[in-house]
Amino acid sequence: MDYQALYQQKLTTAEQAVKVVQSGDWVDYGWCTNHPVELDKALAARKDELKDVKVRGGVTMWMPEIAKADDAGEHFTWHSWHCSGVDRKIIAKGMGFFGPMRYSELPRFYRENISVDVAMIQVTPMDSHGNFSYALAASHLADMLEKAKTVIVEVNENLPWVYGLTGSEINVADVDYIVEGSNPPVAQLGGGGAPTDVDKAVAQLIVEQIPNGACLQLGIGGMPNTVGSMIAESDLKDLGVHTEMYVDGFVDLALAGKITGRCKNLDKGRQVYAFAAGTQKLYDYVNRNPDVMAAPVDYTNDVRVIAQLDNFISINNAIDMDLFGQVNAESAGLKHISGTGGQLDFVMGAYLSNGGKSFICMSSTVKGKDGSVKSRIVPTLTPGSIATDPRSCVQYLVTEYGMINLKGLSTWERAEAIISIAHPDFREQLIQDAEKMKIWRRSNK
């Protein structure tokens, strides 16, 4: 097959390509760094011609052009599979909504439940075999594009080519239109500020529990990043990576010689992930690097796959938790923050792993906008808050005041253990709350 001839046959402008979108259509933008740029601008320019166009995305790194106009919501409705700060702004504008899910199920949603009229994503330049790489976001893109009636790819020369499993590339024969974009720099995600003393205290407790040869999953956020930094400075060796999101912390670990993957039961020697976002350091590291491997999220986040990896260590953040052991990592009451993502899958998978451990970590308190300090450990979750991890699944909980294991504990034992890692200023009130809920029995330890 003459791939270059086929490429030229399908090459068009963004303005021409988006003419395929009609009022009432479902349009998919893909995921995170793969959201289109020129195609998004061209679609936004057609705003006044269109009504009720429903657009899906997730972990949005920049404000889409289709969401910028004051009357954008009269023409487009945004649907996010996992909310970033940008997604939250779109929702607050009144034109966005969230799609609840366990991230591992998203490819199956496309296979069984979802219709896609038009899909448009950024990809790498085509190789000599006619393939475009999904670059940083294998995620669910293969199933999404398979379901789409029309597939438009926007080529960005700055996207890294990432090797991966089936489901990490698309051939020019399966593409309807090709647009050569303006090659913007890949959107970057910073690592946040310097770790706080609280971050360091929590991270130290977790690092002490990690054995040589462990396989790591780190969530996004200050505490998981701090854990990564401490591992890089530790004596740990021969670590592996199998994670949902690949972040700069893993690059630092690899460059420090901590990651070899030689103890992994699956994908030995490879760092496996569903999508990646970080700084240019990360993008340069993953580009054509045989040590890393992109894979669809129904592989990376499958509890059955995770459970096969010995000594699996899962480290994730939370917004708050209650005295029953329910963990909320998604909302502040009715205000949506992020999503379930893969947290529950990794909590369950790590526990099922031989030697595996799952850690949910957070600071014991949070300061409100009014300057008041509030406990992150609450009697019951605030009405509207989401129980991301049910009490029956949670293993280790960690704050700067200690680490507890909830497995095997009754309701009163849980309440006592959880209160023991709360900030001291709130413990007496939490005891009173536990007594009112009839889950308090002070032990004689």
What does this structure look like?
The model has no long low-confidence stretch (mean pLDDT 95). This protein has 2 domains: 3-180, 3-Layer(aba) Sandwich (Glutaconate Coenzyme A-transferase), CATH 3.40.1080.10; 197-436, Glutaconate Coenzyme A-transferase. It has helices spanning 3-10, 14-17, 38-45, 85-92, 106-112, 141-147, 197-207, 222-232, 248-255, 280-286, 297-300, 303-306, 343-352, 411-420, 424-436, and strands spanning 11-12, 26-28, 53-57, 76-80, 96-98, 116-123, 131-133, 148-155, 169-171, 177-180, 215-218, 240-246, 271-276, 292-294, 312-317, 320-322, 327-328, 331-332, 335-336, 357-361, 365-367, 373-375, 377-378, 396-399, 402-405. 27% of the residues lie in helices and 22% in strands. A hairpin with a 2-residue loop joins strand 24 (396-399) and strand 25. An 8-stranded parallel β-sheet has the order 1-10-8-6-2-3-4-5. An 8-stranded mixed β-sheet has the order 14-13-12-11-15-20-24-25, with helices on both faces. Strands 17-16-23 form a 3-stranded mixed β-sheet, with no helix packed on it. The protein is α/β, with parallel strands linked by helices and 445 residues long.
Structural class: alpha/beta
- Residue share in helix: 25-40%
Number-wise, the strands total: 25
Number of helices: 15
**Biggest β-sheet strands, sense, barrel:** 8 strands, parallel
Question: CATH superfamily assignment of the largest domain?
Answer: Acetyl-CoA hydrolase/transferase C-terminal domain
CATH architecture of the largest domain: 3-Layer(aba) Sandwich
> Could you name the CATH topology of the largest domain?
Glutaconate Coenzyme A-transferase
